[in-house]
């Protein structure tokens, strides 16, 4: 290599923020009410303007869409709802022009029961494809993550395993032919030009030998029991050798059920099975007296993951995604403006020592939708929850309330491009979230004080001073404070957020805290070093 040549940046995924697109709901260009690849291509300029560097697409593969694409029926084919392979190649070309990396979401734990492999396996017990899945004559006691038993029956009487919906049959990764088919599909997309994968529920692909009963088969404990099965490490190392080592790409593992210590094993630079782990410790915030959620717990999640992984490996920072209710619904305050809540949460997670993941609409402060009837539900998990509640004697009102409280539809509504919507000229596939006023891209891009503008500021700050805001050491200054989140980044970076209902003075924590630092941004009620409720100050290098 020429000594003057710029070396390849193998760690680009540390520097580039990730923006997650939910394709069905991003932008519809043909009026059928479903987002498409052409719409994503058109929308890339807006993501570049925001400051994104990586665009993660939720599944676009051929699928019956029982679980909106996470039930894949062909790993190497674009679903026609989204467009054609030519449309995808045009998307890649436009992304390259904008210096955006495209990452695909791929489900390796299971396929649709309409995948040709499963169709053959269910039809003929002597088929070689029978061993592509897990079968038993008598089910064990495992429960599906979506509710109900984790086993369903085919006409010949055999039961197949599905940790999720009955339309999603778990693959038998013990079969080396299965693994080679998966690796071949991944190489297909990497050769085409994608820059990596988000590996859906990859930590549960390895099942214990014999699939024994467990002490607690309910979804949460079962997930934790199955995470990092007996062969997960060898298979991920094999995947690294067979696939990732041959491309300049990123491997992002979704890690439900993992704690930071177990996750650190997977992203250890000395044995890098994966590059980053996408964890779920922020899913269910515990309650605290007189507060909707526990601030001390919230801060502890950042610290635990940074201490376990940050000094050597690399973290992700994820508050919202397509499986969770909106940020301001889970972490908000009904007495505070939603926009201010959204900014405070953004300051907390975008400026961590980690790659931040922004879910479509969170950069606008988009809230939950309103569910008034069963017909409003699309989410298969929510529909199962509704049905199970009726089966145990609940009323229709109780069943709907339970489903509405947990449905993933809240995060999947069409993206609001304009005050009038702008997602489609037709009828949207899912009822849009009510625009409370200004919660749309066009309005917020024109407003320097909007949530979108604050997201853009935070992402540009990372880019302008990576030594501080990307790679600088992380330290929580007041981990036990019940309301205040003050953390340092490197030598000069300081973020102070008041999540409480009473004002506080920064100097109450440390009189020297602001020495040598310059105020870079502030919002909310700020006077001197005093922050009012849900106000924030960001300090950086002095002049």
From TrEMBL:
<dbReference type="InterPro" id="IPR017853">
    <property type="entry name" value="GH"/>
</dbReference>
<dbReference type="InterPro" id="IPR006047">
    <property type="entry name" value="GH13_cat_dom"/>
</dbReference>
<dbReference type="Pfam" id="PF00128">
    <property type="entry name" value="Alpha-amylase"/>
</dbReference>
<comment type="similarity">
    <text>Belongs to the glycosyl hydrolase 13 family.</text>
</comment>
<protein>
    <submittedName>
        <fullName>Glucohydrolase</fullName>
    </submittedName>
</protein>
<feature type="domain" description="Glycosyl hydrolase family 13 catalytic">
    <location>
        <begin position="20"/>
        <end position="412"/>
    </location>
</feature>
<dbReference type="InterPro" id="IPR045857">
    <property type="entry name" value="O16G_dom_2"/>
</dbReference>
């Amino acid at each position: 290599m020429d000594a003057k040549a710029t070396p390849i940046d193998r760690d680009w995924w540390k520097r580039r923020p990730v923006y997650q697109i939910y394709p069905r709901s991003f932008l519809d260009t043909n009026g059928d009410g479903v987002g498409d690849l052409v719409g994503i291509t058109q929308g890339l300029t807006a993501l570049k303007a925001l400051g994104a560097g990586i665009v993660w697409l939720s599944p676009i593969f051929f699928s019956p869409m029982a679980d909106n694409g996470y039930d894949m029926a062909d790993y190497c084919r674009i679903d026609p709802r989204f467009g054609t392979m030519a449309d995808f190649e045009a998307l890649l070309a436009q992304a390259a022009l904008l210096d955006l990396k495209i990452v695909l979401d791929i489900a390796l734990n299971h396929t649709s029961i309409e995948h040709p492999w499963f169709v053959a396996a269910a039809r003929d017990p002597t088929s070689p494809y029978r061993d592509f899945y897990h079968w038993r004559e008598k089910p064990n006691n495992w429960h599906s993550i979506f509710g109900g038993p984790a086993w369903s029956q085919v006409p010949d009487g055999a039961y197949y395993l599905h940790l999720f919906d009955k339309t999603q049959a778990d693959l038998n990764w013990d079969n080396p032919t299965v693994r080679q088919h998966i690796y071949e599909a991944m190489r297909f997309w990497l050769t085409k030009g994608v820059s990596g994968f988000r590996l859906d529920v990859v930590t549960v692909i390895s099942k214990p030998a014999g699939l024994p009963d467990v002490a607690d088969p309910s979804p949460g404990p079962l997930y934790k029991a199955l995470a990092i099965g007996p062969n997960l490490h060898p298979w991920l190392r094999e995947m690294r050798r067979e696939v990732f080592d041959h491309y300049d790409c990123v491997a992002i593992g979704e890690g439900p059920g993992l704690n930071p210590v177990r996750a650190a094993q997977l992203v250890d630079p000395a044995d890098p099975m994966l590059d980053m782990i996408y964890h779920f410790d922020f899913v269910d915030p515990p309650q605290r007296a007189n507060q909707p959620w526990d601030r001390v717990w919230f801060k502890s999640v950042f610290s635990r993951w940074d201490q376990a992984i940050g000094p050597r490996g690399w973290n992700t920072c994820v508050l919202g995604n397509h499986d969770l209710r909106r940020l301001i619904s889970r972490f908000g305050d009904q007495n505070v403006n939603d926009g201010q809540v959204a900014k405070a949460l953004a300051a907390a997670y975008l400026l961590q020592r980690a790659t931040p993941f922004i879910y479509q609409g969170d950069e606008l402060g988009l809230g939950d939708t309103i569910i008034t009837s069963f017909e409003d539900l699309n989410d298969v998990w929510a529909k199962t929850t509704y049905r199970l509640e009726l089966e145990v004697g609940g009323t229709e009102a109780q069943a709907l309330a339970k489903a509405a409280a947990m449905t993933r539809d809240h995060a999947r509504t069409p993206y609001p491009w304009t005050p009038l919507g702008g997602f489609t000229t037709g009828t949207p596939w899912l009822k849009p979230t009510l625009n409370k006023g200004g919660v749309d891209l066009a309005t917020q891009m024109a407003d320097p004080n909007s949530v979108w503008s604050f997201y853009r500021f935070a992402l540009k700050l990372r880019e302008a001073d990576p030594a501080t805001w990307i790679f600088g050491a992380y330290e929580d200054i007041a981990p036990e404070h019940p309301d205040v989140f003050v953390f340092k980044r490197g030598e000069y970076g300081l973020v102070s957020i008041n999540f409480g209902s009473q004002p506080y003075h920064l100097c109450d924590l440390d009189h020297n805290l602001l020495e040598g630092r310059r105020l870079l941004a502030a919002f909310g009620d700020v006077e001197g070093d005093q922050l009012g409720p849900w106000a924030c100050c960001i300090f950086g290098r002095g002049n």
